[in-house]
Amino acid sequence: MEQIQIIDSKKHVGETVTIGAWVANKRSSGKIAFLQLRDGTAFFQGVVVKSEVPEEVFQTAKNLSQETSILVTGEIREDSRSKFGYEIGITNIEVVSESHDYPITPKEHGTDFLMDHRHLWLRSSRQHAVMQIRNEIIRATYEFFNNNQFVKIDPPILTGSAPEGTTDLFETNYFDQKAYLSQSGQLYMEAAAMAFGKVFSFGPTFRAEKSKTRRHLIEFWMIEPEMAFTHQEQSLEVQEQYVAFLVQSVLDNCEYALDVLERDKEVLKTYTKLPFPRITYDDAIELLKKNGFDDIEWGDDFGSPHETFIANSFEQPVFILNYPKAIKPFYMKPHPTREDVVICADMIAPEGYGEIIGGSERATDYDFLLEQIKNHGLDEKEYSWYLDLRKYGSVPHSGFGLGLERTVTWISGIDHVREAIPFPRLLNRIYP
Ligand code: 4AD
Ligand code: MG
């Protein structure tokens, strides 16, 4: 008997096959048992009809408890009533391993309870759908950057530098030295861009931020492209093409997952229209003030209500350009005609999901950067390699960082970033 995976059912209609699966749910009467089966690739229904199978098979089916692992044998048939479209008419069941008192039942559970059982919660259909979308975004990221001649370069995780400021670093001992877990690979990616032209990284990032919001993780994954001989305007074009490509890839390849999550596909389609709108920081402040936000002044960073209001003023993700120098990192290129702002942009996702990309053109002047490093209280010696990049053939270059989990949260249409990563690290959680 051929052993197949549920996802491949459509290729085996009318054939008798075996599938290794878990019992996600069960309904049975005296005559028929409906098993909701999952094997990691998909969920579908198995049907056991008492009058069509040996009595012990029907009894086994009736006694199956949630999450028992089984090998089922039967014929694949079309099932027009289900979203998945196929089911299996079971003729035999072999129990692989029993499961008793599975903690997550079809009733409602609180989020803390589910988070404590994250190792099991991942099996549920909603979590499965979110992880499928995450996987598609990862796959499409590699496709996009490979198609566009970017080289993948892996920056270190243990570092001595702090590109995004020293307040949220995870410190660790590195033998007789101090080291930090990377909060961004950007500075290394700048070195890589000078060696390979267009590069991107895709790795874990750590921020000891005392933020307890639905957008903040302590450990998250970031994609950081960096491009030599590239100004900010060209970088913005790459960013909007990349994000539109991610949305289109999820629409093309994750229809079922989007349906499970009841995500409106028509709304997602509007996010593939280019270009994305752009608004300056100055104009964004004006817009907020005109609309009754008196809790913000020029020079302040946006809070999430501000970002949401700005995003709601547009249909697509929006770029906010040229923030005040004082609230941005040391490496950003100063504006050519204004002292007070830098050449940068954040991309704000629609529907209140907030910032998904932060990026900028990078300062190229040695003396300017050295002064910035000192002004930001950073150790000059630690950045001497970074300054070297401005000594030996410095060129205009730009780059950005996209937060994977925020992007997954937005495209999936879920409420909280903690469900967009398999095992979230949150302010008060490192278990499981
Ligand atoms: O804006 P950030 O801090 O930018 C950088 O780290 C730059 N060095 C990137 C670059 O230019 N190469 O972070 C980039 C993105 C944010 O827009 C957000 O999507 C995500 O990373 N991010 C977080 N995601 C989840 N939890 C957190 N605590 C995050 N902090 C940032
Ligand atoms: Mg940012």
UniProtKB/TrEMBL annotation:
Top-rank lineage group of the source organism: Bacteria
Coiled-coil intervals: none
Pfam families: tRNA-synt_2 (PF00152), tRNA_anti-codon (PF01336)
Signal peptide as annotated in the record: none
Gene Ontology molecular function: ligase activity
Chief location category: cytoplasm
Gene3D superfamilies according to UniProt: Bira Bifunctional Protein, Domain 2 (3.30.930.10), Nucleic acid-binding proteins (2.40.50.140)
Catalytic activity as recorded in UniProt: tRNA(Asn) + L-asparagine + ATP = L-asparaginyl-tRNA(Asn) + AMP + diphosphate + H(+)
Subcellular locations according to the entry: Cytoplasm
Residue ranges of domain Aminoacyl-transfer RNA synthetases class-II family profile in the record: 133-432
Keywords of the record: Aminoacyl-tRNA synthetase, ATP-binding, Cytoplasm, Ligase, Nucleotide-binding, Protein biosynthesis
Enzyme Commission code: 6.1.1.22
Quaternary data: Homodimer.
Protein name according to UniProt: Asparagine--tRNA ligase
Organism field: Candidatus Enterococcus mangumiae
